[in-house]
Hints:
Elements lengths: L2 E2 L2 H4 L3 H7 L4 E5 L3 E12 L26 E6 L2 E7 L5 E11 L8 H8 L16 E5 L7 E4 L13 E4 L10
Antiparallel strand pairs: 1-7, 2-3, 2-7, 3-6, 3-9, 4-5, 5-6, 8-9
Amino acid sequence: MITIxxxxxxxxxxxxxxxxxxxxxxYFIKDKVKICRIVETEAYLINxxxxxxxxxxxxxxxxxxxxxxxxxxxxxxxxxxxxITTKLGEAVLIRSCEPIFGIKGSTVGPGRLCxxxxxxxxxxxxxxxxxxxxxxxxxxxxxxxxxxxTRIGVTKAKDLPLRSFIKDNKYVSKRN
Length: 176
């Protein structure tokens, strides 16, 4: 059975959501349909110094305080990164996806993924459970094995095991 993820899916423990997002499909419908399967995520917790909400709410991170199931999009190093909000001040970074349909370009790494999908700052704050142009779907795909490691590219709280990915999937980011 295919179901669109609702707000309750996102309004849970952030680490659980990060793991449970693995294998889910992102449907992006703008000029054409693009579909990809989430294969790698990172959790960012409010008490985590690497989290944008660690020092409280501000203009740039305000989406993280508006409720669960929203896209939190920000720019870093000339690229956009796409996160999904969970609990207040917490989010899951979508690091990589496996392309399924209509996607040109690499989907490995958060910046490349946003570029391939066409995600930019205009999607910040967009609801994933009430939007017509971007939503997440559970198509019944079963993840065989999840691996958990430390996150990539963070300098603060770098030893926390908050990165989750589908083991042996070729679309998972590689460490430098």
